[in-house]
Amino acid sequence: MSFNELSLSELEALARQENVQGKTIDCLLALQSDDEEVRTWASEVLSGSVEPTADEEEEMAGLLETVLYEGEDGQSWAATAVDQLYWTATMLGRLNQVDPSTSKVLRELAESKSPALTPAAKRAQSVIERLVG
């Protein structure tokens, strides 16, 4: 288990709560777990109860940028990285507004031509359209 990873029981408890704040990054990091059950529960929490805060934006944008650029080096992203990109873009889209530097990395994801990133790129494009338009 990585340093910031939530345990399976913690994720299950979060999934039963409403309006969980301050756990977005931990849930996004849990998507990289070696344990499929942890990844499944992290996705469950992200799809429901987690509400990102403006305080988490910078860290989410940094995570998006890191995962995107690491894969670009070899034009290869693991399925867990693709999920992480998708969910990070989704969480950024739940904010009322984002910093221009965050918009920049979202735009880079949206413009990706990699077939592996199509779902994440579409989500990023949708987020950009909602926040800008």
Automatic annotation (TrEMBL):
Protein name as it appears in the record: HEAT repeat domain-containing protein
Organism: Rhodopirellula bahusiensis
Organism classification: Bacteria, Pseudomonadati, Planctomycetota, Planctomycetia, Pirellulales
